[in-house]
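Exercise 7.
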Amino acid sequence: MTVLTPESLGAFYYIMPGLAALYFGIIAPVYFYKVHSNTTLAIGFLLLFLVAFVVSYADPFIDSLYFSPNIMDDFNGVMLYNIAISVPFSVIFFAWLKVPWFSDIFLKMMPYYVMIGFQSYRICGLGYLEIVRRGLNEDFFFLWVGTLDLIVSLTAIPLALAVKKNGLKKMKNWVLAWTLMGFGDVTISFVLYFLNWLKLYHADNSLAVLMVYPVSGIMPTFVVGVFFTHLVFLLNMDALMDAKINAPEGDDSESVSESTSLL
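Solution. The predicted structure, written as C-alpha cells, is:
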C-alpha cells in the first residue's frame, strides 16, 4: 500500500492541505462574511475544512482496510470513507431544499463567476501528477484526475473574468464546456475508484491511496465543492443566466426570470 509522507510526496504533502486551508478556511469564510454578511456560511466553510483534515490526519479510512482478496472484507472501510464524503453533501442538499436563503445566495445574490473563479483551487490536482512523477502510483487514474484538474484550475480565473465582463448568458457555451469537463473529471474518477475496489479496474493496483492523508482530506472539501459548483450550473442554467447578478458588467437591466430553478 502506498504511504504518503513528507519524504515520499515532498512539498505537496503540505501544499494540498495548505490550499484547502486557504480556500475553505480563509477565502470562502471572509467572502461570505464580508460580502454577504452571512456568518453561518463563513463558519460552515471553516468547520468543513477543520473537521475534514483533523479527522483525515489520523488516517482512519486506510486503517479500516484489510486488502483482502475478498472485497467484502473491505466493505466497512470503503463505506466509512464514503459516508465521510456524503455528510457535507447531505448537509448542502438539506440546506438547499429547506433553507430558502441558502439557495438564494447562490442563485440570486452571488455572481456565478465567483464560483467559477473559486475552482482555481483545483490546482491541487498537481498533487496527483506528483504521485505519478514520484512513482508512488502510476495508474491512469491519477493522470486523468491531475491533468483535468490542472486544466480546469488554470482556465477558472480567465473564464470568471470573461463571464464578469460579458455576462453568463453570452458566455453560456464556454461555461457549459468548462463545466462538463470539470464534472466529467470527478464523476469518471469516482467510477474508476469503485471499479477498482470491485477489482474490475486494475485489480492489481489499488487506488486506496485516495484514503490516505492528505488526499483523504481533499475529498470532503474540494471534491464536494466541485460537485456543488457544477451541479448548481447544470440544474439551474436558465435561472442563473436570467438573474440580474449575472448580467454583463455595467448592465443594470432587471432579471428576466427567477422561476426556472430545477435544483
